[in-house]
Amino acid sequence: MKTLLSLLFVFVFVSSQVLLAQNSVVERHESVGDIEFKEALKTEEYILLDVRTVEEYLLNNLERSKLVEFNGGNMDGTLSSMPKGHKYLVYSNEGVRSKVALKRMKELGFSHVLELDKGIKEWK
Question: Range of 52's domain?
């Protein structure tokens, strides 16, 4: 009986560790090229953030993107209210504002953020 309980405990412990590992997001914060960005986008595991102005967003945006206005908006307030454990993709026109957003998201405790290095102007 003692052996059976020990085996059951080991099984439950190992199973819970496997589930935790599968559900955890690997920490990563970096700029990536358009090929890697597109591959990540295809997985549908990411929340896509556009950190341009409202006007730029309305002219063109990537499907499924959410606007987090960099200029004139409350970027920190918006980011602070978002879940930190999800995977995020961030882009801007030329990659300047998205690099600032990447840095800020890391400071705010986001665990996984990829930023489109040269922005959507270079989107191929």
Answer: 26-122
pLDDT tens for 27-56 read 999 999 999 999 999 999 999 999 999 999
User: Is residue 2 situated within a structural domain?
Assistant: no
What tokens appear for 94 in the block?
């030329």
SS3 of the chain: helix, strand, coil, percent, to 5? 45, 20, 35
- Strands (DSSP E) found in the chain: 28-32, 46-50, 65-67, 87-91, 112-116
| First-last CA distance in the chain | 64
- Side-chain-facing half-sphere of 42: CA atoms under 13 Å: 6
State the total domains in the chain: 1
How far apart CA 52 and CA 119 sit, in angstroms, is: 10
